[in-house]
Design brief:
The structure holds two protein chains of two kinds.
Chain A (H helix, E strand, L loop, with lengths): L1 H43 L1 H6 L3 E2 L6 E2 L2 H32 L2 H16 L2 H20 L7 H25 L3 H9 L4 H12 L1 H17 L2 H6 L16 H8 L5 H36 L1
Antiparallel strand pairs in A: 1-2
Helix pairs in contact in A: 1-12, 3-6, 3-9, 4-6, 5-6, 6-9, 7-8, 9-12, 11-12
Chain B lengths: L1 H11 L3 H36 L5 H5 L12 H32 L3 H16 L2 H15 L6 H26 L2 H9 L4 H12 L1 H17 L2 H6 L10 H4 L7 H12 L2 H32 L1
Helix pairs in contact in B: 2-14, 4-7, 4-10, 5-7, 6-7, 7-10, 8-9, 10-14, 13-14
Classes of the chains: A mainly alpha, B mainly alpha.
């Protein structure tokens, strides 16, 4: 009996430890990002770092202004959302309301497959197909542009927008739609004036999730965006927060390396803000449904 | 009966403006569906078209010979395998344990919510941040250098959320009466979890592991900083843990960006695509099959 009690206690303890590991990981990651990111910001100056327009990390008098990266990240994400959200939302309407269950269950795995394709594969196809295409069609010197990055990111965030929006649309109570149809609205009118507004918070959550994905993507963008530290232009080569880190990490040292960690900290802060918004949205959505 | 009749007469009287609205949106919906579907088909078709002709037996079973300018990916297939094994070996016990704690032990709702919030946060952190922290902590602080072990441990933290979530979901669907029955027969809590509850959650654990394998196979940013891009053949698993080893995704990036080897890139992309197809399919099959047993 006693031995059994001890085993029980030990197992209970082990489970508590396992449960706490994700908390430890989040706290640890935050601490590491802050500790390694702050020194360079302190040395460069917060204003010069965030609002400086020139990044010359390897010059004899180096300049560390990351405004170009912040702006490029922001514009790339915005553009990807601008293209990805309408297509994704309409796709989720198709799966949830228009397609027969049989057709929907045939198309849904295709969307899941898009989510499973590794980002380097998107990068490769973007590099070989999209970059020359942009160069020819828009007559620019190099096809590695912000525009190309936007297209690749839009495709990459599509699956998360579709699946979250579809869940939200499926959760809309049938009686709302039946009432609308009974009042004489057509099916399409019902979808756009009743179903989508009722699923608003879920759809917004999908969009925010997409924003998080787009802002954090590194490798695919690295392969198509050209990677020059310019202020962003739609058909110019750009460097984003993520690619700024990965393009110099392998050879950086001293203040330059510390500045890269500071960029990581800025990215981390953005992601945390997005995550808090996402959590609030999802909680608010659940309350409405109850 | 009456409402049906009136709705029919109304739909006949739809104004031209409403009809256009209807048609335009319907066309847009079908267009989006078609674009998404064609995109996927085109993507897969193009990758296989460019990649499959470049896959040969030699490519799969040899290692890179720089002097002869020949590229083989056997070491990287093995490194991918080692990384998957190591990451799952560490992440599975922790993830299952955490799920059991959240579902079976934790009494305090606040603690549960806090743990769940951290898990969600972990799944939102981009892989490049994992790469940075993994490099600082595992490679430098713990002195593991750029190695398969450091990369795998970084991935453990990344895949933990999905293992916890899927295990938890299937714990929730295990009927409470099973636990009550075991306790009523005099079994202790741990005994009933081990013999009754865990076997019922096998579907969640397996599909969670398959999802995790998918994530590991596709990962590049986090591994580039922590495991590097080594391409020397190491057949001994224990020895491989301490050397730098590039997984297939990492090598795709390195070969394309640093060596301009696009054919090799597409060949690796085809292999990755086949893996993703197999992973997606088996995750579904596992969920269906094992649920029946449970």
């Amino acid at each position: 009996m006693k031995a059994r009690n001890i085993t029980e206690k030990i197992m209970h303890g082990i489970f508590i430890v396992c449960g706490m590991i994700s908390i430890v990981a989040v706290v640890g990651i935050s601490a590491y990002m802050i500790i390694s990111g702050l020194p360079a910001i302190k040395e460069i100056g917060l204003k010069e770092f965030l609002l400086g327009q020139v990044w010359k990390s390897t010059a004899s008098e180096p300049l560390f202004g990351i405004l170009p990266f912040i702006m490029s990240s922001f514009l790339a994400t915005f553009g990807a959302i601008l293209i990805g959200v309408p297509v994704g939302l309409l796709m989720s309407v198709f799966l949830s309301k228009i397609a027969s269950p049989k057709l929907a269950s045939a198309v849904r795995p295709a969307v899941e497959l898009l989510a499973g394709i590794p980002s380097v594969v998107y990068g490769l196809v973007g590099m070989i197909v999209l970059v020359p295409f942009v160069m020819d069609v828009f007559g620019v010197k190099s096809g590695s542009t912000l525009f190309t990055a936007i297209i690749v990111l839009a495709v990459m965030i599509l699956p998360s927008i579709v699946s979250v929006s579809e869940n939200a649309l499926n959760a809309v109570p049938k009686k709302y739609e039946e009432a609308s149809l009974a009042l004489g609205a057509t099916k399409v009118e019902t979808i756009f004036k009743v179903s989508i507004p009722s699923a608003k918070s879920g759809i917004t959550a999908g969009i925010v999730l997409g924003i998080g994905r787009a802002i954090g993507e590194a490798m695919a963008v690295m392969m198509v965006a050209g990677n020059v530290a310019n202020m962003p232009k739609l058909f110019g080569s750009v460097r984003l927060l993520t690619t700024a880190i990965s393009s110099e990490m392998s050879y950086a040292s001293g203040l330059q390396k510390q500045a890269l960690f500071s960029i990581g900290l800025v990215l981390f802060v953005f992601i945390m803000i997005i995550n808090v918004i996402l959590n609030t949205l999802l909680k608010g959505g659940n309350r409405n449904e109850n | 009966m009456k409402t049906e009749a009136s709705s029919n007469s109304l739909s006949r009287k739809i104004s031209a403006g409403r009809r256009t609205y209807d048609t335009v949106l319907k066309v847009l919906i079908y267009l989006s569906a078609a674009v998404t579907f064609l995109l996927l088909v085109g993507l897969i078709g193009y990758i296989f078209y460019r990649g499959l002709p470049n896959i040969s037996w030699e490519f799969l079973t040899t290692q890179r010979k720089v002097l002869e300018d020949k590229i083989g990916i056997l070491p990287n297939i093995l490194f991918t395998l080692y990384t998957i094994i190591t990451a799952l070996l560490v992440a599975l016990p922790i993830g299952i344990g955490a799920a059991i704690y959240l579902n079976e032990y934790a009494g305090n709702r606040k603690i549960v919510r806090f743990v769940e919030f951290s898990t969600e946060t972990l799944s939102a952190i981009p892989s490049i941040i994992y790469g940075l922290v993994g490099m600082l902590f595992f490679c430098q602080k713990l002195g593991l250098k750029s190695s398969v072990l450091a990369g795998s441990l970084t991935l453990v933290v990344m895949i933990l959320p999905s293992i916890i979530r899927t295990t938890q979901e299937s714990l929730k669907t295990t009927p409470q009466s099973y636990r009550d029955g075991a306790l009523a027969l005099g079994a202790t809590k741990w005994y009933s979890i081990r013999t009754i509850v865990l076997p019922c959650t096998i579907d969640g654990i397996v599909s969670g592991s398959i999802l995790a394998v998918g994530r590991i196979v596709g990962e590049s940013a986090a591994l580039l900083f922590t495991a590097g891009a080594g391409y020397v053949l190491v057949t001994n698993y224990i020895k491989a843990l301490s050397v730098s080893g590039g997984t297939l995704s990492v090598m795709l990036y390195v070969y394309v960006m640093e060596n301009g080897e696009f054919d090799v890139g597409f060949a690796i992309a085809s292999i990755l695509l086949i893996l993703v197809l197999v992973i997606n399919f088996s995750a579904k099959a596992a969920k269906r099959k094992l649920k029946k047993i449970g």
